[in-house]
Amino acid sequence: MKTFYSLLELKAAMIRNAFRKLLTRSKFELITLIFFFLVTGIGLFIFFHQGFRFFKGQEPFGSILIDQTFYLFNFVLFTMLFVSSAISSYASLFRSNEVVFLLARPIPWNQVYFLKVTEAVWFSSWAFLFLAVPFMSAYGLSKEVPWLVILLLTFLFYLPFVLLAGVLGTIASVLTVWLLPNRQSRHIALLIAVAIAILFLFKTGPEAIQEQGSVASILSGYLPQVTFSKYPLLPSAWTTQGILALTSDPGSLWRWSDGTFYLLVLLSNLFFFMIPSYSIGCLLFPKTYLRAQDHGESDPKKRARIHRHLESWLDRIPFTSRSAMAFLEKDIKTFSREASEWSQLIIFFGLLLVYFLNLKNLEFHILKDFWKNLVFILNTVGTYVVLSSFSMRFVFPMLSLEGSRAWIIGVAPIRLSSPVFEKFFLGTFVSALLTLPLVYLSGWLLEIPMERVFFTTGLGFFVCIALTGLSVGLGAIFPNFKSTNPSEIISGFGGAMVLTTHLGYLTAIGLALFLFKDPSGPAFLSLALASLAVGIFPLQLGIRALKKMEF
User: Would you list the domain boundaries of the chain?
Assistant: First the structure.
């Protein structure tokens, strides 16, 4: 394992050098990053704290709602970590040029495997840990637990929690590629999994509505439907039960032994699954990696015919340069060839669509006007949050993924603004196509007045412009041409800036939607112009940074 430790030391040295480079290059960037992280963390804490206060006021089962929210939060967190780790490890293990470089050296396969697994777990988990700290702080305040105790419990439970999700996600990724080496078979398996998730969600509904228009009664109707998050074999349930035991009665020896038991269950399962992970790294990963290099294009003529139709259709678009069309064709082809890319869109936006289609079954439309409007705003902001993750994951790395060929853009007889605006317009178009129908559908099914629905849907177009402009602009200001892994590109300074600016902007949009209760022309115009400024200003800065860059 000496070689493995040397490789880890190399990765750690790269992180230290990047941090030192940031300090020597601009202390303003570091101060700005720290400031945005603090503001975002405080904003998340306030949001979670107000949510727990709301649940506490829903008598007689306020404490039950808080604990059930805790179970659901950890369940969703574990699921997202599992999916994110599986996708990130697929890119790190089977699509990374570094793996090719390392395998050409006298380095054992299992050490390369664990190096990339460690990398994938880090790339997929740092943002979730950033979300967990303010949530746990707000939860501890609602339970009147000292903050030092809640921070200690967060570290003790969430560290093995994240590692276990990463190990299981990596195992699932390798087994999927081994069992389904052909792209077409993986696509079919993905669609079947999404269909099963949709059927499961369609079954969810409140069992009883005791008082029409009452938020408390509607929420109580869902308590029996979300007991799946308490399933005793789920790591999220062990984490929740352990923290609940240690915070409900800190002075009780019995509760301490109960909480320690669940912590040991979490740790023992982490160590247990390291055994099959080691076996996969030694035996299965070499076979799977070599097998995956044969991409199995079953019908290349059909794919080429589709691409010819795409090119001929794009060539008919007026008012565009040939260079912009070339970049557009390349980005569309690259995106369509990677199932790990578009599969995330199907999963997250598909689940949102299923949720919105179920709004009638969920009985939210019988709420009083205030609560219906609040649910509509939360649905809209939630859609924008998913859109933000899409923009960070796909739009922000687009310019960096030009890679070592980026210098060609600098010497080619084209404007540097051409690829930047192409990626901006493509991202805006896809964002609007995914988001605006969902926002309109949510308002229509909640029986919101159509004036407000049209106001929010129209504003959503400018939100797409703002989020895409922030992603493309900051992607041009902070490019990483040395990496081909989008997860690694997002994990840099630029990705942190995109995350904080997106959250800050969406917080402002959510507050504006809540404050502007009556839609009006001046309100729409002011929000639209502000969103345009948020989207266009980073683009201008990004183009200026590219012009000054030495490729």
Answer: 33-292, 317-551
